[in-house]
């Protein structure tokens, strides 16, 4: 299957997709690409991990991990993963969306409960309730209905025909998307790179390589807001915290925080976080929204923590903005040898996927803000493009759980790669 055009994560993006085609081909076919490994690793930011982070704890109480399944079925690289109930949903660069039954053990886990095909590469997948949302290279968002068996039925594409028609005849609904070209503000005009749902599921955020992000009302699928020129380059990821803060990251090396006040109609910029020296590819939030993780082509994962305004001066960083809370960088997680492409958080652990073909699992150690690398998971033959993680409700009982003693928590980590495979790993983490 041919590879579709798209931007190189670690280089600057032009808005026009046609300018990305040669760079993507180089990125996907050259595993030793210098653009994935030659970026500096932020020496100005202190490490939160031990200096010899490649040496893992081998004590009896150390974390244990094992690969319990390899899901093979996609014929093109796996670009996004999402968990919803008993199903894992995966999207690939050939436009296929698959549903995998998570409850099946061992080799049976490779059973595909359902599959659907779109006409454009899948860039992001999110699910909630009976709805699955997929973002695509063709500038559209597709909405799928999920039945009890996990089967997918296309419900609509965003923007909907009704939404487009309603904006068609008024000049105020048009925005300039490039020189001498205008489009209604409900349209993305480049690949939709990332999706995020609010905690209550009432709104969907979409981010795009067209440098904008949009807000969609889930109840009727209408676009209610568009923030144009949110960044100076392509937006790679968007995440939303429980308190309504929206974070976007971009190839312009910046992370921005946005908030919509109770009496405001539009999202306003409240902070710009600048510490990375190369394109920022991935974001993840802790479950309480107080810690933000960002991964970039500089091979570092930066850890940002929310502090009160009076604490910001003593931290000595630039997470300024309006409001009483600020994000400040407290350090970096180092160990990957190439670009960070994806991040996922589950409970107390953070997972990172990289162009170095590995997945690393990290955990914060108490109140001193230090982190330990619990596991380095190998097995992918090419870069790891996407991750999903959850607490293992079954507790890892059985022959695949590994031998461990004492109390701890078991996690399931799913990784999708450019090798077209999905790896399922169980990781047991001892309690602190």
Give a short synopsis of this structure:
This protein has three helices and 30 strands. By secondary structure, the protein is mainly β. The strands form eight sheets. It has a four-stranded antiparallel beta sheet, with no helix packed on it. Strands 2-3-4-5 form a four-stranded antiparallel beta sheet, with no helix packed on it. Strands 6-7-8-9 form a four-stranded antiparallel beta sheet, with no helix packed on it.
Can you walk through the features of this model?
With 432 residues, the chain is mainly beta. Helix content is 5%, strand content 46%. It has three helices and 30 strands. The strands form eight sheets. It has a four-stranded antiparallel beta sheet with strand order 1-30-29-28, with no helix packed on it. Strands 2-3-4-5 form a four-stranded antiparallel beta sheet, with no helix packed on it. The longest helix has 9 residues, at 21-29. It is globular, with a radius of gyration of 21 Å.
């Amino acid at each position: 299957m041919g590879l579709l055009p798209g931007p190189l994560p670690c280089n600057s993006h032009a808005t026009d997709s046609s300018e990305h085609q040669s760079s993507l081909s180089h990125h996907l076919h050259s595993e030793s690409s210098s653009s994935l490994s030659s970026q500096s690793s932020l020496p100005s930011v202190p490490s939160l991990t031990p200096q010899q982070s490649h040496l893992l704890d081998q004590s009896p109480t150390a974390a244990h991990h094992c690969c319990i399944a390899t899901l093979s079925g996609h014929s093109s690289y796996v670009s996004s993963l999402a968990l919803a109930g008993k199903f894992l949903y995966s999207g690939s660069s050939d436009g296929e969306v698959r549903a995998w039954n998570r409850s099946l053990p061992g080799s049976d886990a490779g059973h595909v409960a359902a599959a659907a095909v779109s006409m454009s590469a899948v860039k992001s997948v999110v699910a909630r309730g009976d709805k699955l949302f997929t973002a695509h290279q063709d500038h559209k968002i597709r909405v799928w209905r999920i039945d009890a068996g996990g089967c997918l039925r296309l419900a609509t594409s965003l923007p909907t025909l009704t939404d487009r028609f309603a904006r068609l005849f008024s000049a105020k609904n048009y925005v300039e998307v490039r020189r001498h070209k205008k489009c209604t503000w409900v349209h993305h005009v480049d690949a939709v790179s990332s999706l995020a749902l609010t905690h209550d599921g009432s709104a969907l955020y979409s981010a795009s390589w067209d440098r904008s992000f949009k807000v969609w009302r889930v109840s009727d699928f209408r676009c209610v807001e568009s923030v144009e020129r949110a960044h100076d380059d392509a937006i790679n990821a968007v995440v939303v915290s429980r308190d309504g803060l929206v974070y976007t990251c971009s190839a312009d090396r910046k992370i921005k925080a946005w908030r919509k006040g109770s009496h405001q109609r539009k999202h306003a910029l409240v902070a710009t976080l600048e510490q990375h020296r190369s394109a920022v590819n991935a974001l993840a939030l802790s479950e309480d929204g107080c810690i933000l993780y960002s991964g970039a082509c500089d091979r570092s994962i930066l850890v940002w923590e929310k502090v009160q305004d009076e604490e910001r001066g003593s931290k000595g960083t630039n997470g300024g903005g309006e409001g009483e809370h600020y994000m400040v960088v407290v350090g970096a997680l180092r160990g990957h040898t190439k670009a960070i492409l994806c991040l996922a958080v589950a409970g107390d652990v953070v997972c990172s996927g990289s162009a170095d073909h590995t997945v690393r699992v990290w955990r914060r150690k108490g109140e001193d803000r230090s982190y330990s690398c619990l596991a380095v998971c190998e097995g992918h033959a090419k870069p790891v493009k996407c991750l999903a993680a959850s607490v293992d409700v079954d507790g890892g009982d059985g022959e695949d759980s590994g031998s461990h003693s004492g109390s701890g928590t078991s996690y399931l980590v799913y990784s999708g790669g450019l090798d077209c495979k999905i790896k399922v790993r169980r990781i047991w983490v001892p309690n602190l």
